[in-house]
Each structure stands twice: as C-alpha cells, then as structure tokens.
Amino acid sequence: MESLIGITGLFIAWLTYHKTFNGKPTEERNNLLGVFIATQKLHLEVQSIIQKYIDENDGASHLLYPDITFQQYLDLAKQEFEKGLSDKVYDDLKNNKDYTKSNIATFQNMIDIQHNALMQFRTQLFFLSKT
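RESULT FIELD:
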C-alpha cells in the first residue's frame, strides 16, 4: 500500500511539473503577444518623436547624449526595432509551438524591461521637447 501511495505521489508530481513547465503556454503566449504589440507601438512612437524633433529643429546633429546625436540614436533605434520588435519577430513568437512556458517567461521579461525603458525615454523626450 505504501508503495502504491509513493508511486501515485511521484506520478502526480511529474504531471504537475510537466504541466507547469512544459505544458502548452497558451495564456502566457497571449499575454506576451499583447505586451509585444504595445511595446512595438511605443517604440514606433518614440522613433516618431525623435524624427519630429529632427525635422522641426534641424536637429539631426544635435546631441541627445554625450557623443550621440539624435540622428545616430534614431538610426540605432530603427535597427534595434528590426532585430527585436518587427512583425517577423511577432510572427515567430505567435506561430512557434516549440516555445515552453520558461521560454515565454524569458521573452516576457525582456519585453517588459524594454517597454519600461521606452516609457521612461518617451517621458524624457516629452520634457526635452518642451524646453
């Protein structure tokens, strides 16, 4: 009887582990895709703000940070967008069924960090444009 209880306990533990870490991450994937789209839009908004500043102030060569001009930053932002937030990346996240909950959690963390950084940067740009 004790052996049966022990085997049943191991089986339940294995099922719990499998469902938690290797199960289909449908809800997690949907949350990630929502945050991804929001971050994608925010990134494009930041690019637009920078472009607007450049256009209105003839500011391509103005320094945004020491040794970094507005134009250099905009060019870098566009490159980073293509690498990490393009529609191609979105489609991969949406359609790749091999991603586990752990993979998606890692992506979610990276997107959250990027989203928060973009929010802060957008706020800085807002105050910069008012001066």
